[in-house]
Amino acid sequence: MFPDLSGRVAFFRGADCYRKEVQILKALVLGEEERGQSQYQVMCFIFHTPRDAFIPSDAMSKLRQKNPGTIRVPEDDKGRTNYSMDYTVILKRSTVISPHIAEMCAEAPESSYTRHEDIKTWSSIQGVPESVYITALKKFPTLSSTPEDKENHQQLQSCTDLKNVWSPCQCHLELCVGWYPCGLKYCKGKGENKGPMTYRCGIKTCRKCSLFSYYVPQKQLCLWDE
Fold first, then answer.
1. Cα separation of 28 and 174, whole Å?
2. Does pTM surpass 0.90?
């Protein structure tokens, strides 16, 4: 069972991100003082999302919410998608992915992550060689640091299974966006000639969860994963 951190998630997808098919999820996790954590943590997860997963930015700019205090219920539950991250993003070089990353993820200079398969997708979409993206990335360690573990090709343990809070491990974090505009809604009616017609009549809303798996240098940075 993974913790519900949906109340601590910032979701961003600006016009440039829309064109480049980049989504950024930013999470803030409060420290557990009773376990020696006095500070909060910030993580950014950067991954590919197709354009048709969201409404166009021009339609978004015209969106007006009536009764903003109302609790919204999404019309469509998109379920959960698993993401196994491969790289830490180097913020000062991240413009090649999106110019919004450095500013939005400024509090996460060592904890902004992306995947190799997303790099391949963006490379294909933008016509930019993968080698250009790689200069903005630092690959995760995938093996334990001892010579014996390297020789035996042992993978990093899940933080769930690890007891030593100072050892590196594979962390898991689930983030949910409980309500967001995800498409245009169309209705059927009759046109001027009384024939059938389809017209835009609103915004479709969705809910979606994402489960991220990523490297942390010590379990102390992933105490919720137990």
1. 12
2. no
